[in-house]
Design brief:
alpha/beta; Purple Acid Phosphatase, chain A, domain 2; five-stranded mixed β-sheet; 11 helices; globular
Amino acid sequence: MFKSLRTLFTPAPAPARVMTAIPAGERVYAVGDIHGRADLFETMVTRIEADDAARAPARTTVILLGDLVDRGPGSAQVIAMAREWGRHRTVRCLQGNHEEMFLKSFTDENTLRHFLRFGGRETLFSYPITPEEYQPTTLEELQALMAERVPAADIAFMQAMEDLIRIGDYVFVHAGIRPGVPLDAQNPGDLRWIRGEFLDDPAPRDFAVVHGHTITPGPELHPCRIGIDTGAFASGQLTAIGLEGTDRWLITAEGEPA
């Protein structure tokens, strides 16, 4: 006469895990926010090269997720290393919000103020600009000094950085994506700056977003979102993820905290 409690209250099945994949024959490494830690980046380059060499041959792409500059002491060195690495293998770079600020700082004094407040001074000191030269300058004088001392090739490198990269079922961006907006209609500002609206979005997707920008104590690995900004400039831990087929694996470079 009565149905059993088991029949009445059977829980709904959990949603199936989205099996995101890199196309066959390809391999991708994505590196989180470096923020001027040239020491950690040098170690990471060595470890990715060793990891790639130990695996079966594949078309390998390295993606730097942006924020190569600011906060750490070696921004100019990181840019130089990224450019050099790109001469030997496929390295694609996303523009982060810190590269955006750096580039706008050359012509916009208000942006320059923000840039200096959030790690820009360390970036300038990694170029041939000394604290003694920096200290007495006005913003206008500093912009002239930056134009003189920051190589045009570095500026061009940052200007050429990408906003969004898609490979297979993975989308790579610096900060995240605006929920409900098609990928081809995303605003570059959101791709570089967004946080809460993206991180808290529960909607399922048929692709996974790999991003940096938001610092976490360790990498966050979810079926549809992978965050790998582990605060290298302060924590001394730079994180990368390797992707091939449906496999995922982590690579870390560790050094002294700032």
